[in-house]
Amino acid sequence: MTRVALAFSGGLDTTVCVPLLEEEYGYDDVIGVTVDVGQPASEFAEAEATAEALGLEHYVVDARAEFAALCLDAVRANATYQGYPLGTALARPVIAEAILEVAEEHGCTGVAHGCTGKGNDQLRFEAVWRDSDLDVIAPVRELGLTREWEQEYAAERGLPVEAGNEGDWSIDSNLWSRSVEGDDLEDPSFVPSEAIYEWTDEPTGETEFVEITFEEGYPVAVDGEAYDPVDLIEHLNEVAGAYGVGRTDVMEDRMLGLKVRENYEHPAATTLLDAHEALEGLVLTQEERQFKQQIDSQWAQKAYEGLIDAPLVGALEGFIAETQQRVTGTVTIKFEGGKARPVARESEYAAYSASHASFDTESVGKIEQADATGVAKYHGFQRRLANESIAAAGTGEAVELATDGGPDGTQDGE
Ligand code: ARG
C-alpha cells in the first residue's frame, strides 16, 4: 500500500489534489496534514469539514509555539523583505518539517503540496522535503492546473469547495502576517477597498500608548505584563490592529523573478520591529548599527527564501546574539495614524550620555566644546582638495596640489 501526506488547507488547490494524487499519481491512500501556525479558527473548521466530506484522514499539528519563537528571532534581526515582515516565508519551513514528521510516522512514501509553479512557497516546502528520501509531488505545478480547471473539476466531481466569503483573493494568514493577493489586486493601479483588511481598522485620529519590554532583544512584556510569545503576538495584533498599524502594499520581487502586487497586514510585527529598532538605537554603537543592517538584510533574505537552517543564518545569528545581550529595556510606542511610533526608550545599557550631548553643558569630564575645533578643520579636507583639483582642471589652469601638508599647515602628515 502506498501512501502520501498532503499539506492540506481545505482550499480549492489542496482539495483537488486529493483525488488527483490517487488518480494521476497512483497512490492508494492520501492523508491530509494541517499545521497550526496561528491561522484563524475558521480555517481549521474549513479544513476539518472539507476533509470529512472527502473522507480524508486528517491530522492537525500545533506548531504555534515553535513558529512564534521564530518570529521573535526575526525581531532580533529587524527582518523585513521589501517592507513585508515575512510571515508566510517564516511559516513554511515550520509547516514543512511538521508534515514530514507526520508522513514518516504514518509510513508515507511521498509528500505533496498544492502550490503553483509561480510562487515562493513551492521552493520553501521542497527545500525541506528534498532533505528526506520521500518523493515530492506538486500536482498543481506538474499537471499545469489553472484555477478555472480546478473549479470545473471540483464541480464535476462534486468536491466540497464552497466559494468562501473572502471573494476571489488568495489569502494566507498566520500569527505574524496576513497576505492578500490575486483577482482585482493583480492590477497595480487598482486601489484596494477596505474589504481586503481583516486585522486592521482604518486609522482614525485616536491614539494609544503601549510599553514593550525587551530582554536580550526578545519582547517579553507589554505594559509590564509578561506574555509568552504566542500570546504576546496575538495581543499586539489586537491592540495595534485597532489603530490600523501594519498595512503594506508592495510590488514584491519573488524568488523566480516575477513581480507580484501584495497586500499585507501585520500589526504586532510592525509594533515589535519598530520598538526593537528604537531600543537598538539607544544601546548599540554607531558601527554596530551600521554593520548589523547588512547582517539583518542577509538574515531576511534567507528567511524569504525559506532557508532559515542554512549555515549562513547560524553565523549571522552569532553576531546577532552578541549584540542583543545589551538590547534589554523598554520602549514606549504611540499608535497614531496607522503607525507604531517609538516615543520613549530606556535601558541600563544605553550607549548615551545626556550630559555629553546636552546643549546646556559646556564641558563634561575631559571633553569641552573647543576640542571639536581640530576635528572641524579636518572634516571634509580630502574632498576640498579633490574639488579644488576638479575646478582647476576645468579652467585649464595647472592643478596646484596642496603641498603644505594638513589643513592647518602642519607638515607632519597624519
Ligand atoms: N508573497 C508572500 C511570500 O512569498 C506571501 C504569499 C502568500 N500566499 C498567498 N496565497 N497569499 O512570502
Please provide a written account of the structure.
By secondary structure, the chain is an alpha/beta fold. The chain has three domains: 3-172, 3-Layer(aba) Sandwich (Rossmann fold), CATH 3.40.50; 174-356, Argininosuccinate synthetase, chain A, domain 2 (Alpha-Beta Complex), CATH 3.90.1260.10; 366-395. Helices cover 41% and strands 20% of the residues. The chain has helices at 12-23, 41-54, 64-76, 87-105, 121-129, 139-142, 147-157, 229-241, 267-283, 286-304, 311-324, 354-357, 372-378, 381-395, and strands spanning 3-7, 29-36, 57-62, 110-112, 135-137, 170-173, 178-181, 208-215, 218-222, 225-226, 247-253, 259-265, 329-336, 339-346, 363-364, 367-368. It has a five-stranded parallel sheet with strand order 3-2-1-4-5, with helices on both faces. It has a five-stranded antiparallel sheet with strand order 10-9-8-13-14. The radius of gyration is 27 Å and the shape is elongated. Mean pLDDT is 93; it is low at 409-414. Bound molecules: arginine. Residues 88-89, 120, 170-172, 179, 181, 252, 262 line the site of arginine.
CATH superfamily of the largest domain: Argininosuccinate synthetase, chain A, domain 2
| Total DSSP helices | 14
β-strand percent reads 15-25%
Shape: elongated
Biggest β-sheet: strands ordered side by side in the sheet: 3-2-1-4-5
Which compounds are bound in this model? arginine
Features:
5-stranded antiparallel β-sheet; alpha/beta; disordered C terminus; Rossmann fold; 5-stranded parallel β-sheet; Argininosuccinate synthetase, chain A, domain 2; 414 residues; binds arginine
